[in-house]
Amino acid sequence: MKKHMLLVVLLLLVASFLTAKALKVAFIYVGPVGDAGWTYAHDLGRQYAQQVFGRDVITSFIESVPEGAESESVLRNYAQRGYDLIFATSFGYMDPIINVAKKYPKTIFMHCSGYKTAENVGTYFGRMYEPRFLTGLIAGIMTKSNIIGYVAAHPIPEVIRGINAFALGVKYVNPNAKVHVIWSNTWYDPAMEKEAAISLLDMGADVIAQHQDSPAPQQAAQQYGAYSIGYNSDMREFAPKAYLGAPIWNWGPYYEKVIRDVMAGTWKSEQYWGGMADGVVDIDISDLVPDTVKKLVSVFKDAIIEGKFHPFSGPIYDQDGNLRIPAGDVASDGELLSMDWFVDNVVGTIPK
Q: What is the pLDDT of residue 280?
């Protein structure tokens, strides 16, 4: 009798295991997973989560989804197919997410870089301005012409904030250097981004930084014998003679946390904005950077992580000489998230 009962229990456990519903998690990308940049970094995070959870989670992704109406149909399709959690990884997906979330209240949506939330919509991002400042320190020391080029993506606060943080790092070590900005109005268009970088190099820039997802600006820098600062991931293989380093993303642990919360039924809508202290953002530095510069960067990195230094510490002036952040003050999150002005060592304008 006892053996029979034990067999029944074992069979029930096996049946439970076989019929357990895996959490279905979708990722929507604005670029190709092979961009070596923004989308590549997110997909590394997806792969990390898949490896952590194994059969308990099913992940799916769709790449190169345009922002706007087309993204809304992709979001709706995933929700209709019973996906429990959807990560949408570009700013322009914000309104489509809000629209679809109203119709699928049982689906949880996570939007990267946005600011609109709902009961089943949360937002997440990283304080990329922290490692941006650190790469500015490197660029400010490594430049000889004092002309530093920056290939900017779209004129939104995220991009403007990054340019300013980088420029503040440059200014901290080299008050004579200027950061020259050219807009490509792209996230991923290698040909256009390379042309923008070349126009900066023709102006005399000997360091090129970027916000886009392709390594094209760095390849242009290498072609011209200049240095480059990448973005999103370690891109040294594309321009090994130019690449000084990059501010990089590490999404895996955060994706693991959100998935665990959803599986446990403890997920709640929030606006997450993590920094280097959380590990969601970091800096990669190549061997082209002297050890003395690496040590300086390390000191500032530790100070930021420990809360002893903030890249947007006053006094900070804008291009017109207006005092934006007084001495002794630090920019608030609200000011950072709505930033629409350039600091005083940036050369260029912000399109309306």
A: 97
Q: For 53-90, how does the pLDDT look when each residue is reduced to its tens digit (9 = 90+)? A: 999 999 999 999 999 889 999 999 999 999 999 999 99
Q: How many domains does the chain have?
A: 2
Could you give the residue ranges of the DSSP H alpha helices within the chain? Answer: 2-19, 38-53, 69-80, 94-103, 129-142, 157-173, 190-202, 216-223, 252-264, 291-305, 333-337
Pair (108, 147) in one structural domain: no
Q: What integer pLDDT is reported at residue 352 of this predicted model? A: 86
Q: Which tens digit of pLDDT belongs to each residue from 18-63? A: 446 899 999 999 999 999 899 999 999 999 999 999 999 999 999 9
pLDDT digit string, tens, across residues 163-181: 999 999 999 999 999 999 9
Within-domain flag for 13: no
Domain that holds residue 89: 19-126
According to DSSP, residue 21 is labeled P
Residues 136 and 108 in one domain: no
The C-alpha angle with vertex 82 and arms to 125 and 39, in degrees rounded to 5, equals 35
- How would you classify the pairing of strands 346-347 and 178-183? parallel
CA 244 to chain centroid? 19
The last residue of one of the domains, among 126, 151, 178, is 126
pLDDT of residue 3: 52
Instruction: Tell me the angle at which helices 252-264 and 38-53 cross, rounded to the nearest 10 degrees.
Output: 50
Say whether 272 sits in a helix, a strand or coil. strand
Q: Do 229 and 340 reside in the same domain of the chain?
A: yes
**Residue 91 DSSP SS3:** helix
Q: What are phi and psi of 284, to 5 degrees?
A: -110, 135
Q: Which residue has the tokens 């357990």?
A: 20
Measured CA to CA, the distance from residue 143 to residue 139 in angstroms comes to: 6
